[in-house]
Structures are given as C-alpha cells and as structure tokens.
C-alpha cells in the first residue's frame, strides 16, 4: 500500500502538485472523512473561478456596455470561465477514475518493458511534456500580468483617461461598481479578489490541460515501448529455424582455430518456441493494460473536453465575427486587434488536444506493422495462431474519443476549423442582410 500511495509521484509532473494545492487532485482517496480539507480547498478554488463570470454578469445587468467590443469581451470571459468551471468540477467528480488510471499506468510501466531502452522512450515523452508545461506557464503568465496590472499602469500614465467619464477607476476584469465606490476600500478589495481569481483560473486551466496531455503522452510512450518489444521478437532465430540451420552449417565449415578467434555470439538456439510464445504473451498482456488505461482516460475526458472544444469553436466564431465587424465599420484597429487576441490561444488549446491525441493513434497504427515484421514465419503453430489474433486486435487503431463520437485527431482539428468557418460565413451573411 505504501508503494501505491507514492506511485503517481514518479509519473506525474509539477502540474499535479499545483492541482493538489488547489484541491483539485488527490493522489489517494480518503474514505469516511466527510467534507475533507482538500474538498474545501477545491470548493474555494471553483468559487474563485466562478467569481469572475459572476462579476461580468453583474456588470451586464447594472451597466450594459454600449460598444460591441466591450460586450464581446464580457461574453468571452463568461464563456471561457464557464468552460474552466465545468472542466474543474468534472475533474474532481472523476477523481476515482483518474486515480485508477494513474495507478494502473504506473503498474504497467513497472511490469512491462522495464529495460533501459523502454526507460529512455518514456523519459523522452516525459521531458517533452515538462518543457511544454514550462512554455505554457510563460505564455499564460504574460497576459495574466497584463490583465492584472494594466489598470494601475493606465491610472499612473493618464489618470483622467483611466478614470473614464464617471471618474470611476477601472478593475482588471469587468465588474459593476456604484458611483463613488472607486475611492473606498471596496475598490481595493475587489481589485485584490479579481487578481487572485484570475490567477487561480489561469493556473487551474493550464495545469488541467497539461495533466490530461501528460496522460495521453504516457500512453503514447507505452504504445511505442510495445512496438519496440514486439519488433524485437525475432522468430527466425528460434531453434530449428532456417537461420539457425544456416548458421550451424556455416560454423561447421569454419576451421576450429578460426572459430576460436571469432567474437562470442548469442546463440540462436537460446530462443525456444516456449520463450518466443512467452514474450508474445507478455506483449499481449501489455496491450490489454494499455487498452484499459485508454478506456479510463476517455471516461475522465469524455464530457469536459467535449464541452471545452465546443466552447472553443463558439468563441473562435464569435471573436472573429466581432473583429471582422470592427474592421468592416472602419473603427479603431486597436480594438479589432484586442477582439482578435484570444483567437491564437483558443486555436492552440484545440490543436493541442487534437494533435497529441493523434500521436497516440499513430503509435497504435504501428502495432500491426511491428507484429507482421517480428519474424513469425518459422515459429510454431501456437505462436502464429496467437500472433494472428493479436494482429486482428490491433488492426483497428486506438483512438481517444470525447463526447462518444469525436476523436482527438488531425481530422477533428480540421472539423473544428471548418465548423468555425461555416458559422463565421453564416454570421457574415446575417450581418450583410442587416445592412441591406
């Protein structure tokens, strides 16, 4: 039980530690304790994320913005925060599934392919996700600091402009303040709460994305290890094979003195039919464990990532439409650029899930070729029969599916982009008809 409790530490990265501080991830489930402290922390984190859209709704109800870019900004914040809340809540609700997946993946790594080559493959995938986590942290830190600090910088550079017509100072995010409240401690308290909520929202969103991507990459690593192990089964070197007979005949023609000078070679007869069948069976069991891990991952990602991709597509369409409308009306280019600024981040997040899901599928597609090229032609009937069953099993590549129908792949990314274009085209026609 001690090893089981510490197992995720060697598999997961720094994002798991951040999620644990936020209360969203618990390596071990604690039974019979009611409302545990991690649950309280998770509730506080989700409440902090929900504070941002609540403030935006209050702004829309108390002082609806007159300009379209401000309305688009408020809508974007509400939709993105809604996606973050759904993803965080469902991640906590699927905690048992995620914990089972992590422990099963850790046990699979320990039981199958524990040689140096397999460790090198897994370390390569692990290092890739670690670097990606650092890149995402930097990419998220810059806009977060900008959103938090720009009201202070604007107030210091041009106090009259930052105060606006009503004389009210600005907050990092939209929020309705009654007249005269900007000079009271209420303003400073709201500023601090918004800064904290924004930081927690960005941290939880980035860490949850990297958490799921790391699990996908670890499954891709297991599939590559399985490919290497299957390809290493060289049935042609089994005892009694054609290669073995040729090697024995060649050695019999070599003089004994010259044979003694040759470097020692691994005997082909060391691999009996039972040894080869045992190695094949071990790889089949490895594949079954990987399929179980993929099923658990799909269960954990099914609803949350599907909603996330749908929200991203709607946001892409909405922001691009607002940007086009601002440019079409001849308004300030700066406002159009501001409206367009969320689009690269939305595209990156969507592409990230689709492309890393495609990596897992690509490794799965190689299993059939690895099995066919393992040198089975001179093996016994039992080996061939089980290898044929395995090839039938891997004939259909593994695909990570969300929403029960949408596969995380390059085709899914193209569908999202195509759907965005179709919606955008429809909105342009509606916009043109209104002007006519």
UniProtKB/TrEMBL annotation:
Membrane-crossing ranges are 39-62, 74-93, 189-213
UniProt xrefs under Pfam families: 7tm_6 (PF02949)
Output this protein's name: Odorant receptor
Recorded GO CC terms: plasma membrane
Q: What is the native source organism of this protein? A: Locusta migratoria
Q: How does this protein lie in the membrane? A: Multi-pass membrane protein
One Gene Ontology term of the biological-process aspect is:
signal transduction
Q: Does the keyword Magnesium apply?
A: no
Q: Which molecular function terms from Gene Ontology are attached?
A: odorant binding; olfactory receptor activity
Provide this UniProt record's keywords sorted from A to Z: Cell membrane, Membrane, Olfaction, Receptor, Sensory transduction, Transducer, Transmembrane, Transmembrane helix
């Amino acid at each position: 039980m001690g090893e089981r409790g510490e197992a995720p530490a060697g598999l997961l990265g720094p994002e798991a530690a951040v999620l644990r501080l936020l209360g969203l991830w618990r390596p071990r489930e604690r039974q019979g304790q009611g409302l545990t402290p991690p649950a309280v922390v998770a509730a506080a984190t989700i409440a902090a994320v929900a504070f941002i859209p609540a403030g935006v709704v209050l702004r829309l109800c108390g002082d609806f913005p007159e300009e379209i870019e401000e309305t688009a900004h408020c809508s974007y914040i509400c939709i993105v925060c809604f996606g973050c809340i759904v993803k965080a809540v469902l991640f906590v609700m699927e905690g048992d599934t995620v914990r089972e997946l992590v422990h099963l993946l850790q046990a699979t790594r320990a039981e199958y392919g524990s040689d140096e080559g397999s460790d090198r493959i897994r370390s390569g995938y692990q290092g890739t996700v670690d670097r990606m986590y650092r890149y995402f942290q930097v990419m998220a830190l810059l806009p977060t600091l900008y959103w938090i600090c720009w009201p202070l910088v604007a107030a210091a550079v041009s106090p009259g402009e930052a105060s606006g017509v009503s004389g009210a100072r600005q907050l990092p995010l939209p929020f309705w303040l009654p007249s005269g409240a900007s000079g009271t401690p209420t303003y400073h308290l709201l500023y601090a709460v918004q800064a904290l909520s924004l930081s927690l929202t960005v941290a939880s969103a980035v860490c949850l994305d990297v958490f799921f991507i790391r699990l996908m990459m670890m499954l891709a690593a297991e599939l590559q290890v399985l490919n290497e192990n299957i390809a290493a089964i060289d049935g042609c070197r089994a005892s009694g094979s054609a290669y073995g007979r040729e090697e024995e005949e060649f050695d019999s023609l070599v003089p004994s003195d010259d044979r003694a000078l040759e470097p020692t070679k691994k005997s082909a007869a060391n691999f009996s039919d039972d040894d080869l069948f045992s190695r094949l069976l071990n790889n089949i069991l490895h594949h079954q464990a990987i399929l179980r891990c993929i099923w658990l991952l799909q269960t954990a990602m099914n609803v949350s990532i599907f909603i996330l991709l749908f929200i991203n597509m709607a946001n892409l369409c909405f922001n691009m439409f607002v940007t086009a409308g601002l440019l079409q009306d001849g308004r300030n280019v700066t406002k159009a650029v501001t409206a367009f600024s969320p689009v690269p981040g939305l595209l990156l997040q969507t592409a990230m899930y689709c492309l890393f899901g495609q990596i897992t599928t690509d490794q799965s597609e190689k299993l059939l070729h690895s099995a066919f090229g393992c040198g089975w032609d001179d093996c016994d009937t039992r080996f061939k029969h089980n290898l044929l069953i395995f090839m039938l099993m891997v004939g259909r590549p593994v695909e990570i599916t969300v929403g029960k129908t949408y596969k995380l792949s390059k085709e899914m990314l193209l569908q999202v982009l195509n759907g965005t274009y179709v919606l955008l085209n429809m909105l342009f026609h509606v916009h043109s008809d209104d002007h006519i």
